[in-house]
User: Fold these one by one.
Assistant:
Number 1:
Amino acid sequence: MKLHDCNALITGASAGIGREFARQLAGRARSMILAARRDERLIELADQLQREHPKLVVHVRKVDLADLEQLQAFLQSLSREKLEVDLLINNAGLGDSGRFAESDPDRNKEMTLLNVATLTLITRHLLPPMIAKRRGAILNVSSSAGFLPIPLSAVYAATKAYVTSFSEALRAELLGTGVSVCALCPGPVVTEFQQVARREGVKPNIGPQFLVVTVEQVVRDALAALEADRPIVIPGFAMKLLMLIVRLMPMPVLRWVARISPRKRGVV
């Protein structure tokens, strides 16, 4: 799909990767719907984008996408206002770090709802009109964590495994419809996400510096992958190579790595 004159919906647009998607698409899109919980940030971003790109139409929607009632009202408003969406960027997500047995059950529920249920429901709502018009693209922001079980991020990694698997299956279903699907699977990216995911008393672990990719590169690579109709994009050469090796490893080796990983991070 060519992104020129697209009508985009970006979830989790108030910060990090979602905010950068809005910035990089602003010069190419016809309209944008920016959705997140922090409306003051969305309004600030919308004002900035419209100053820089006067022809761009920006809609701001304050919504807690982990609240299914708010989500349903949000989706109904899109239909009621007849807001066209032919580029869906499912970016909103939540993480956690630490032992599962010590995790907050409410946070686990919110993370599963946002990372899995919300993404699925938004996609289901917006996909039929795309198919009818034979034009559309869906970018699901997953994670390289979804390629393997990650101790101390058990629920998060599992939700991202769902996102990647769902994206691959949906892509196969949509062959020949004019609608493409891509899963963005970044490795370490320094954004507010890590601070939100960090529990009190748990040291954040971004990973080796050579694996870290800037948010600008992540979004650039993702948009290029969409236009090239690629199924999966892993930004950064080092991360791409590492994930290739990981995906070729036998499961017994991955289990061994998973067992020793918490010890290396000082967790017993």
Number 2:
Amino acid sequence: MPAPKTFEELTGGNLKLAQELKDVYNNDIEKVDTLVGCHSEPLPKGFGFSDTAFRIFILMASRRLKSDRFIATQWNKETYTPEGFHWVQYSTMKDVLMRHYPELAPILKKSKNVFAPWTKLPESSKYTGMETNAP
């Protein structure tokens, strides 16, 4: 994935954001750190975060899975109780979120992918910050 050469390229043509970044980074795109760059990129259709953030996530997630002994070498009923093993094996991220945040259940039940932007909860209309999943 080639690094963007201009602030306009980084922001996907968002000229206002590009100018703000130019001002903060003294017009030097090389000074933009990864996190700020990821938050400045446009989101691919259907994604909740940038392409760069997704690629970093995929690389780090696979590395962590390979080095986690509880998954890589001790994924068995001897390490986990049979009940715990079944629970982990057959629970999804949606199940975990609904178990810990039951108020999300009405929205998550309609969601095919919990990592994609969700339909807003009515309470969300009070949020006045920057919208990351606006069309």
